[in-house]
Specification:
heterodimer, A: alpha+beta, Jelly Rolls, 3 domains, 7-stranded antiparallel sheet, 4-stranded antiparallel sheet, 43% helix, B: mainly beta, Methylamine Dehydrogenase, Chain H, 1 helix
Amino acid sequence: MKACHLFALSLLGLVSIAHADLSSSIEKLRAVDREGKGNAEATAAWKEIAKSDAGALTQILAGMNGANPLAENWLRVAAGVVAEKAAKGNGISVDSLVAFLQDTKNAPAPRVLAFDLIRKSKPEESEKLAMSLLGDPSSELRRYPVTKLIEEAEAALSAGKKDAAGDTYQKALVAARDEDQIKSIAKKLRELDRTVDLPKHFGFLMRWQLIAPFTNVERKGFDEVFPPEKEVNLTASYPGKGGDAKWVPFESKDDYGMIDFNKPFTMLKEVTGYAYTEFNSAEARDAQIRIGCKNGWKVWLNGELLFARDEYHRGMKLDQYKLPCHLKAGRNRILVKCCQNEQTESWTVEWQFQLRICDATGTAIAEAK
Amino acid sequence: MTTRFISRSSLAFAVALTSSFVIPHSSLSAADWLQFRGPNGTGISSETKAPGPQMKVAWTAELPGRGLSSPIVVGDKVFVTCASGPEQQSLHVFCFDAKSGKTIWERALRATGRTMTQSKTCVAAPTPCSDGKLVFAQYSSNDLFAFDLDGNLQWLRGLTYDYSNASNSLGMAQSLSVIGGTLVVQSENDSESFAAGIDTATGVNKWKIDRPKAANWTSALHLNSGSKQLVTLQSSKGILCLEPDSGKEVWNYADGASTIPSSAVNDGVLYAVSHGITALQPDGNSVSQLWRNEKLNPGTASPLVIGDSIFVVNSAGVLIKASTKNGDEAWKLRLKGPFSGSPVAAGQYIYIAGERGDFQVVDSTAKDGAVVATVELKETILSTPAISNGAVYVRSDGKLWKLE
């Protein structure tokens, strides 16, 4: 018996050492950073973690909370290997993964991974969970239940139940965060004569003051500091390219919030414009400014440059660039610089951008009244 | 105004670098196809066991996402990348058993960079490469992963996470190349354009140089110079030859070059896709022009050199054979195009897959050339085949085929 106790105690000791070692290894993965920093230490630590059994999965997932995207990937692969190994052996007990998924204090990335692991291990369990994720803080976890709702609405439509279909599409739209799903739902709702306010859904900023044209000959305007970067004075005018540059009000009527400089200023080339607006936030909070633009552009929030991009006419899409930022309570000043270049091809006419304010999951932040 | 979001952290530690890293010969085989267009980027199989003209599908493996990267082959393992998800944000590396086509392992990671591409291309566009011990995979999102052959993660980088304006909204497709202990990575675009030599052991930069601010989809080539192996980087400005270990310039050809098809190299001569084809003879720290034929214009596919002939597929899908001695045309042969992938060859046979799924075998020695076999794969194919151990591997968005 004594020998058995000793063996058991030594096993417990081994287990506790193993846990301590896993924590240390996870910390090494969490320490990786830009330009390969921490890679050398992470290689060995990853191997230790990858040796773990399925019981360590939630610890590995928890290690992703608050980690940078590089560390997330190290841990994601380790969890994948542990799960793959377990699947070939005794399988995975999904209870702890379900608990991890359902705890929304955990970050979206490991919760998405937890859902994937549940789905691979016990598809029927993920089916049961799916609809509970419809309003999930993770936009990615909403995708599947939104798909289910779309299917349900399509079935209702096929059965001639237009009202039921419309209600279900409406429910799907409220939950949807992915552009492809939102587009298809909005189309169906409009076909059913339902009102859809896409700018509100996305959180596009629709009302701006625009000023142009400053020069961008030889693309030098991108780096040149024109007066609006020093001071926004909406009553001022300045010498511009080929005439005075003046502020004009502009309100977008576009579903996707396009702010088109060509409309007030005509299709100019080698020019720079600015757009200014204010956003009234109910509280001080973290947010994202998301911009789509195929011209050279810069964005400032309350005088702070968030990002600058000097690529021209290589394509534009919703949420092309996601800029983490911090809104202050009350009035937030947003300035966009938008540069048009010298290209003359038909696909280089656009001089425009779209900009929305949302949280990190893509949910629109409503402006305070 | 102050700046945020663009800040870069400095390199936190230095890693001792060996001046050269020689791979044991035992780890490599002539049957290996280790990078885009195979041995040294030539597109020519160096093994004696050639696939021959008549081919049939040996096996097909399903892929869960899009990709136009080429497969690579190390020993009896075939590696393929793809990307899945609504924004192609899930990045996959697959390892298949070459004999059976069964999955040996799969790893899935997430894009840390931008995944936007033009619709024809996709995130898994750059071809991975291997030094025989590690597999390196890069994506249009600028994510870069190193795995050993058993799927153990060795290191990773997020090059757009590191250099926040290094991206191309059309998508990037420059393929990786490894020489000694240096992984040559290109991220050439309109904004933060660079190339880097990365330590294969740690994933840390050995060197990093600015590159022309212009979108570029061409890939590096290996160039033998005496006992040294050099690397050439092609861009709209021309072709820059570097020492791979240090990034030190050896010579620079500055008369412009294509940004889509890559050049070809054979027997120490570089056949540059520049003003048609320009044959360049490197000599120490300089390079001289041997000949130029402005009518030899590759479309998207990169040229191929077999012996004393250069083969170019033009934008009309016509395969042109010309002399490597003077660039004179020998014959033209219309193929079933169009083509995004490049031709590869083993022995006298050229293998190329058309975008409409026609995998074609051309006898390069036939008078006026001849398509001697076609396998209809019935899918859109935008990739370049790989040759290994008497078989040819080719992939579409959803499938990987072994033909033999």
